């Protein structure tokens, strides 16, 4: 029986919340030319002389808060998911977990699949929406590694999965308990941001102008426009949850540096919503499938504080899919469909 190898890849997290480990993680992550897409020398100076020295101690404190007895949720939920998939998939499947940055490395994951004599590999990055900085970077790293091998295996990549029915099923069930139990004035879909230039660079024939024409619809021309994908994810989820268009807003968080990032910016909205009488808000983080710094701390704690300070009354965050059985089912379906 031919064996099929599955490499599940997420972004990565520091090995520990210590300042040296956070600095090591930030250096590897931000020196990736797909993440900070500026010339090498400028990137090197920005990362090594400014971001790593000054941001690492601040970030380490926040990672300390995120860390629990199992470690970093991004990593341990990845381990849970892989364990469950190993139990649920037929015998011919071999599943490995990897992180784009830090550990477990993509190199070790691919090597483990090779040692198990798989005949084909499916790489499944855990990013529902495609971005060059995330999925694109995983694809490049995997290709760079296998290109050094004597035998280059047959490899397939899952570029995005926001439209999968089973993904929407999982998101809907996790969110439903909040929507049914509490009364909210407004719903906020907050996605990780990107520099605007990365949208332009991904655009086919200059189609993406970051306006309503591009991002309020989703089709062949803008299928890799991250902003359009985020709007589409929100439309699909809102429709499943019975949330009317006027009752939700899409926004983008985690801007870094002075260049323009995709809008609307989450921090501007937090101040605006209470002024518009929207004081009870439920937030969603559908660009993250596992709880991490960007969800639990940024949206769950920092945004909540800013929103309450601006006159808001209630702020809840829908947790990520983490190790939910419907999320495992979604991954299983994606794997079976693509192998
Ligand atoms: C130029 C910088 C960044 C781009 C572009 C970017 C894109 C991007 N990132 C994620 C997912 C995650 N990012 C996380 C943390 C994080 N991201 C950046 C910068 C960029 N991200 C930084 C500096 C950090 C570190 C946090 C800090 O020090 O404050 C995480 C969390 C990891 C964890 O361990 O919890 C995730 C996940 C996506 C999906 C994305 C593009 C769409
Ligand atoms: Fe990020
Ligand atoms: Fe677009």
From TrEMBL:
Pfam families: Ferrochelatase (PF00762). InterPro entries: Ferrochelatase, Ferrochelatase_C, Ferrochelatase_N. It comes from the Bacteria. It catalyses: Fe-coproporphyrin III + 2 H(+) = coproporphyrin III + Fe(2+); heme b + 2 H(+) = protoporphyrin IX + Fe(2+). Its main location: cytoplasm. One of its GO terms (biological process) is heme biosynthetic process. The keyword Cytoplasm applies. Its EC number is 4.98.1.1. Pathway: Porphyrin-containing compound metabolism; protoheme biosynthesis; protoheme from protoporphyrin-IX: step 1/1. It is an enzyme of class 4 (lyase). Fe(2+) binds at residues 192, 294. It is found in: Cytoplasm. GO terms for molecular function: ferrochelatase activity; metal ion binding. One of its GO terms (cellular component) is cytoplasm. Belongs to the ferrochelatase family. Catalyzes the ferrous insertion into protoporphyrin IX. NCBIfam families: hemH. This is Ferrochelatase. It comes from Aureibacter tunicatorum.
């Amino acid at each position: 029986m031919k064996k099929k190898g599955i490499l599940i890849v997420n972004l990565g997290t520091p090995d520990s919340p210590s300042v040296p480990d956070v600095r090591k993680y930030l250096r590897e992550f931000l020196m990736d030319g797909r993440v900070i897409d500026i010339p090498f020398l400028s990137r090197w100076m920005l990362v090594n002389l400014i971001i790593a020295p000054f941001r690492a101690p601040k970030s380490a404190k926040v990672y300390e808060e995120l860390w629990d007895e199992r470690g970093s949720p991004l990593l341990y939920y990845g381990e849970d998911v892989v364990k469950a998939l190993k139990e649920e998939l037929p015998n011919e499947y071999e599943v490995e977990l990897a992180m784009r940055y830090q550990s477990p490395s993509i190199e070790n994951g691919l090597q483990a699949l090779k040692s198990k004599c798989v005949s084909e590999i499916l790489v499944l990055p855990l990013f529902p929406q495609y971005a060059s900085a995330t999925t694109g970077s995983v694809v490049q790293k995997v290709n760079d590694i296998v290109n050094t091998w004597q035998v280059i295996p047959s490899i397939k990549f899952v570029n995005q999965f926001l439209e999968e029915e089973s993904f929407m099923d999982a998101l809907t069930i996790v969110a439903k308990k909040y929507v049914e139990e509490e009364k909210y004035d407004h719903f906020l879909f907050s996605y990780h941001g990107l520099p605007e230039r990365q949208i332009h660079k991904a655009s086919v024939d200059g189609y993406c102008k970051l306006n309503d024409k591009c991002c309020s619809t989703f089709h062949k021309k803008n299928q890799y426009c991250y902003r359009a994908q985020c709007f589409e994810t929100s439309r699909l989820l809102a429709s499943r949850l019975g949330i009317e268009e006027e009752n939700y807003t899409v926004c983008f968080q985690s801007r870094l540096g002075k260049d323009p990032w995709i809008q609307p910016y989450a921090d501007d909205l937090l101040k605006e919503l209470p002024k518009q009488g929207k004081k009870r808000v439920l937030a969603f983080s559908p660009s993250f499938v596992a709880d991490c710094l960007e969800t639990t701390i940024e949206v769950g704690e920092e945004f909540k504080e800013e929103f309450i300070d601006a006159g808001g009354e209630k702020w809840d965050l829908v947790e990520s899919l983490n190790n939910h059985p419907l999320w495992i089912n979604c991954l299983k379906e994606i794997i079976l469909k693509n192998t």
